[in-house]
Write a structure and sequence with these properties.
The protein has 486 residues and is α+β, with helices and mostly antiparallel strands. 56% of the residues lie in helices and 20% in strands. β1 and β2 form a beta hairpin. α4 packs across α5, α5 crosses α12 and α9 runs antiparallel to α11.
């Protein structure tokens, strides 16, 4: 073969003519098909046309559904980790109401449990149930459930039939939990014993058993067994509802039922499905009786609440009345200035100023018939300008034997005998004391000792002559005739 370009072009033309002779008009369709396969945008359009129908087919197929769920869940989980804030903003309108609804349901369930406990704690029947619980070792809540429910599915186990492993379980909050391993082993042993001893075919399965006052229902499925512990007498429709629940488990978690329990526990929703199977119904007669007891209990609680509120209001009013009365005592007492008073709980607090010359606050309370206990009395010292207190203080500092002080407005009237030093102090008082404007000394005289000294000085009495005061008079004694003559 030659490497001449002309030769290559001739060969290509020959091949093209040969292709046209063999394929005819289909050459155009083949070229279009090649272009469609090579163009990513065209392929994207083709996939978009068939994708919705394919998704609907997969979703409708329980076997294929988990295969598409897993990559979607992983994709969403990765996107949430990368951009948590955006997902939080998008889910906020949904999560807010959902959280509020969940909290409301939880509070409603809590209130119902508290209400049931109150109903059955203060009745003869409730006391009898408590004694039975103490005697038998069965929890009180379980005895209440047994006595008040027409029927109740207490606990549900999802068991792998071949291995006997417990894949998942759910129970009521007021039910004592069973050992899942022991329960599964017991169930497997009973199933094997019945098949061996009675010669039952392998396809025949155990459907139930009586366990004291409880019934064990066994609902068999192709990949899992649902074991339900039931109390009471449920209708046959309850078993049908449990069968529907088991079918839902197979439809949603079919692939995981053949694996280990850890594989199934990682899938969300399995526990919620089992909790939906914890069915129950309260007997109508017991429900009505419970409603009457509840009404009586709430009525008694309401009366007790009203009594407590009335007692509290009366105590508060009495405390306020005493507070006002004591405040009036301190405001009327000379030498006291009440600046604040209030109450805190059962305590009364009084704050203010008190002149040290006044009576103690405890003495004032005791005289008026009030107990000082439970009362905080905080009075800081000060000097009062009340005329009675002012006069008492002046008498202590400037008064004396034979001297009388009276306060007439802002005029201090002094009568009786005063010493020169005390007279000088009294004369300086108007500029020093804010309550004294002037001092009237017109009714004063020198005291006896000062008068005797003044007489000796004025009369130039010799040393052998004694001048002594006695009963507002001066007595002169001595034997100096010359001095007497002068």
């Amino acid at each position: 073969m030659s490497d001449n370009p002309t030769s290559h072009s001739s060969e290509a033309d020959d091949l093209r003519r040969l292709r046209e002779l063999l394929l005819g008009d289909k050459v155009v369709y083949i070229d279009a098909l090649y272009r469609r396969v090579d163009d990513p945008e065209t392929r994207t359009g083709d996939v978009a046309e068939v994708l919705p129908g394919a998704m609907e087919t997969v979703i409708a197929d329980p076997v294929q559904q988990p295969k598409i769920e897993r990559p979607l869940v992983e994709t969403i989980r990765g996107a949430i980790k990368r951009d948590t804030e955006s997902f939080a903003e998008a889910l906020f309108p949904v999560l807010g109401p959902a959280i509020r609804r969940a909290v409301a349901d939880a509070l409603k369930s809590l209130v119902e449990r508290i209400n049931a406990a109150i109903e059955h704690s203060f009745t003869v029947k409730g006391l009898r149930w408590r004694l039975e619980a103490a005697r038998s070792g069965v929890p009180f809540a379980q005895i209440v459930l047994r006595e008040t429910m027409l029927y109740a599915v207490q606990e549900v186990f999802l068991i792998q039939p071949e291995s006997g492993l417990v894949l998942a379980k759910a129970r009521r909050a007021d039910t004592l939990a069973l050992d899942e391993d022991a329960f599964s082993a017991m169930l497997t042993a009973i199933q094997a014993f019945i098949q061996d001893s009675l010669g039952m075919p392998e396809g025949d399965k155990l459907r139930g058993a009586e366990l004291g006052d409880r019934t064990l229902w066994i609902i068999n499925g192709p990949q899992a067994v649902l074991a339900c512990l039931v109390i009471g007498s449920p209708a046959h429709e309850v078993r049908d509802q449990l069968m529907d629940g088991l079918e839902t488990v197979h439809a949603r978690f079919g692939d995981e039922l053949d694996g280990s329990p850890e594989l199934l526990s990682d899938r969300p929703g399995i526990e919620a499905l089992l909790e939906e199977m914890l069915l129950g119904e309260v007997a109508e007669a017991k429900k009505a009786s419970g409603a009457r007891r509840s009404l009586l209990m709430w009525g008694a609680a309401g009366l007790l609440l009203v009594a407590l509120l009335g007692w509290g209001a009366w105590n508060t009013w009495q405390l306020h009345k005493e507070e006002i009365a004591i405040a009036g005592l301190f405001e009327a007492e000379s030498g006291y200035v009440l600046t604040a008073h209030d109450s805190e709980g059962d305590e009364l607090h009084f704050n203010g100023l008190r002149d040290p010359l006044t009576r103690a606050p405890e003495a004032i309370l005791s005289e008026a018939g009030h107990d000082a206990e439970g009362k905080t009395l905080s009075f800081r010292p000060y000097q009062s300008l009340d005329p009675t207190i002012v006069l008492q203080r002046l008498r202590q500092s400037l008064g004396g034997e034979g001297t009388e002080l009276q306060l007439d407005g802002d005029v201090l009237v002094v009568t009786g005998s005063v010493s020169p030093a005390r007279r000088s102090a009294l004369e300086q008082l108007p500029g020093l004391h804010p309550a004294v404007g002037s001092v009237d000394l017109s009714g004063t005289r020198l005291d006896g000792q000062a008068a005797a000294e003044l007489a000796r000085r004025e009369l130039s009495a010799p040393g052998n002559v004694a001048i002594t005061p006695a009963n507002d008079r001066l007595t002169v004694t001595g034997d100096d005739a010359a001095w007497y003559a002068t």
